[in-house]
Each structure stands twice: as structure tokens, then as C-alpha cells.
Amino acid sequence: MFGHLSLLAALFFIGTLKDFRVAGLRLTEVRIPMYVIKGTAAQLECLYDLDGEALYSVKWYKDGNEFYRYVPRDMPPAQTFLLPGVNVDLHNSSDAIVTLRNVNLQSAGRFRCEVSGEAPSFQTVTEHGDMIVAYLPDEGSPKISGGRPRYQIGDYVRVNCTAGRSKPAVKLSWQVNGEPVEQQKLRKYDTIVSGRDGLETSVLGLQFRVEQKHFRKGNMKLKCIAELSTVYWRCNEESVEGDRPQKAPVLESRETVYASNSRADPVQASSTASAPSTPITPLVLLPVALAVMVMATLAQGITRDIDTDKISMDRTAPGGIGITKETQQARELLAGRKEENRRTSHGKSATQLEKIALTAR
Ligand SMILES: *[C@@H]1O[C@H](CO)[C@@H](O)[C@H](O)[C@H]1NC(C)=O
Ligand SMILES: *[C@@H]1O[C@H](CO)[C@@H](O)[C@H](O)[C@H]1NC(C)=O
After folding, report:
1. pLDDT tens per residue, range 330-359
2. Which of 58, 148, 160, 198 could be disulfide-bonded to 70 (CB atoms 3.0-4.6 Å)?
């Protein structure tokens, strides 16, 4: 009985002792970038608080293999070990930061930093994070295809948005007049994998029936956005015109167009009838003049008819007047990428600190 109690007491003591020891050396921030663009440098940070102890070593591992070691007592303190895809820039590395040059697909993996204090305690703290190497889309902005320059109410918009080849696949989304599109209007397709590096092409379709509400001042804006976490953001927008906004549904509105044309004819005929009457004809030639007038009126009426037809056809013909197909190359947030990366890693390290706090308890 007493044996059990003393065992429990001993366990309790070891437990508190362990807590006390972990409270000494601790990691304050570990930043492993989640996405790094191929060909650029990556900075991995491992910040620690020695709490009065001396530093014995900082070691870095990728997928379990050590590639960098910093031991203040060694001369020089920093050394690196060869690993595929890991090219340490020693000049830009220290006890707290490791810089990897020119990252490639092999550089991706799980990175762990391990900080150890001096004898006699040799306490060690460790934390890890995963890094993905991204190939940005190779063809600039996403492409919009299958669109028409004009739509009428009741028509179907059926368009595709295709991103350039990348890794991982970019996330595509559609907006109509600046507003996100409901799920049921999206057509999802499998990404197309190609080439030796297995680069991926994303395609996202948009399909919906055009309604009056889709036109703002006679225009409808279809925008496709391509994103890759915080390292890439590009969009492409197409502006399409509606055929003269009409209150009536499409079939009726077509009829209205024809009806107004036929109504215009008599008006034109009557106005042209007055024109030939201006020249003063001698009374003797009145019957002849009348005959000429009738013929002229008819002839003019016909030409006017043809003219109005031509005009109205031009107005409705696809590819006619007023087509604005503007391709908007939108802002690329690559410039702000570092900032955002920083924010992400802050968030990450915050959770990591929580984790560390938990292990300490
Ligand atoms: C690496 O160090 C050089 C100077 O030694 C500096 O110009 C360069 O900006 C550094 N690169 C990084 C990624 O810190
Ligand atoms: C959109 O892309 C898919 C997959 O490539 C294809 O099957 C479909 O016909 C395309 N639609 C349009 C409107 O281009």
C-alpha cells in the first residue's frame, strides 16, 4: 500500500521536475514557409529563448535527415550536410536562420529544427513544419474561352476558365459583376496533368441562363480568378454586352424590334412623299408629274426600307457595333507576397507556440 503511494509521489515529483525543466529552454518562433516559389530562396527560422542556459547546438533536419548544424563551440560554428534539393547558403545562415538557395521540387518536405542546451541538462526542444515548392502558372493570367461578345436575356452563358500549368494546381473561381457565383452555376473538370514535372492545368466552367439582373448599364462582367495560397493571385475579366436591355422576355423583344421596323416604314414613306412635291411642275405636265411622283415615292420608299433593314440588322448582328471585349490584366500580388507569407507564418508560429505550451504542461 505504502509502496504504491510512494510510487505515485515519485511520479508526481518527476512530472513537476520535467515541467520545471521544460520551462527553461523554449522555442519562441519557428517559421517554415508553407509555399516557396521554385527558383527562389527559402528562409527557415528557428527562434529560441535559452532562459539563462548556454546554447549547445541548433540542428535542422529535412524528412529526418540532418542538413545543417550550428554549434557555437565548433570552428566554424555552422556546417552543412549534402541532401538532394537542399542547398544551404552558409553566408545567410546563423543559429536562428537557415537560407536555402534556388529551391526545386526536391526541396519540398518536412523541416524540423532542434535546439539543445549545454551540459549538464542537454535539454532539447524541437518543432517542425511542411514546405511546398510551387511552380507558378506559366502563361500569365487565366484564359477565358467560349464566350460571346453579346448575350440576350434567355441565352446561356457557357464559358471556361483555364489557368497556366502550375504545381500545385491553382484554385479557380468565377465572379459575375464582382460577385461570387453560386455552386450550381459552376462546371468542375479534372485538372490536366502534363510533362515530366507533372504540372497541372486547372479548368473551371461557368454556365447560367442570362437574366435582366445580370446586366449593369447594359454590361455583364465575367471574371475568373486564379490563386495559389498567398504566393499567386491573378484574374482575367471579360465584359459582354446585352442586346439593348428590354423589359420583355427575349422572344417578345425580338418581335418588338421587327414591329417597330414595320411601323417606321409608313412614317418614312409619308415623309418622302412630301419631298418630290417641292419642285413646281407646270400644270400641263400634271398627269405625267403625278405618275413620276408615284414612281419616285415607291422607289424611295423601297430604298429607305432597305436602309432601315440594314441598320437594324447591324444593330443586332453579332460582331456589330459596341463590342467591348476588354481583357483586364489584373494586379498580381506577388509584390505583397512576402508580407502575406509573414502573416501566415506568424499565424502558424502562434499555433506552434500553443503546441509548445501544451507540451510544456
Ligand atoms: C544573402 O547575403 C547576401 C550578402 O552576403 C545578400 O546580398 C543577400 O540579399 C542575402 N540573401 C538572402 C536571401 O538573405
Ligand atoms: C470547357 O472545358 C471542358 C473540359 O476541357 C470541355 O469539355 C468543354 O467543352 C469546355 N466548354 C466550353 C464552353 O468551352
Report:
1. 333 333 333 333 333 333 333 333 333 333
2. 58
Which tens digits make up the pLDDT trace of 28-52? 999 999 999 999 999 999 999 998 8
Give the CA count within 13 Å in the CB-facing half-sphere of 360. Answer: 17
Evaluate whether 127 touches 110 at the Cβ level (below 8 Å).
Answer: no
Q: Is residue 288 part of a domain?
A: yes
The DSSP string of 60-104 is EEETTEEEEEE-TTSSSSEEE--BTTB-B-GGG--SSEEEE-S--
Distance 92 CA to ligand 1 centre (A): 6
324 touches 239 (CB < 8 A): yes
> Which residue's CA is the closest to the ligand 1 atom numbered 1?
92
If asked whether residues 226 and 293 sit together in one domain, one would say no
Q: Which residue in 215, 255, 244, 245 sits closest to 316, CA to CA?
A: 244
Q: Is the CB of 92 under 6 A from ligand 1?
A: yes
Please report, for residues 13, 119, 131, 212, the alpha-carbon distance to residue 252 in angstroms, rounded to integers and kept in the order given: 88, 90, 59, 14
Most informative mutation of 189, 192, 193, 201 for ligand 2 (most atoms within 8 A of CB): 189
User: Do 83 and 200 sit in the same domain of this protein?
Assistant: no
88 Cα: distance to centroid of ligand 1 (angstroms):
12
Per the prediction, the chain carries an average pLDDT of 72
Q: Cα–Cα distance between 195 and 20 in angstroms, integer?
A: 55
Q: Which three cell numbers stand for residue 338?
A: 512576402
What is the C-alpha separation between 128 and 299, in angstroms, rounded? 89
* Owning domain of residue 79: 2-134+338-360
For residue 316, is pLDDT > 50?
A: no
Q: Tell me which residue has its CA closest to atom 10 in ligand 2.
A: 160
Pocket lining: 181 vs ligand 1, CB cutoff 6 Å: no
In a domain, 252, yes or no: no
51 lies in the same domain as 35? yes
Ligand 1 within 6 A of CB of 247:
no
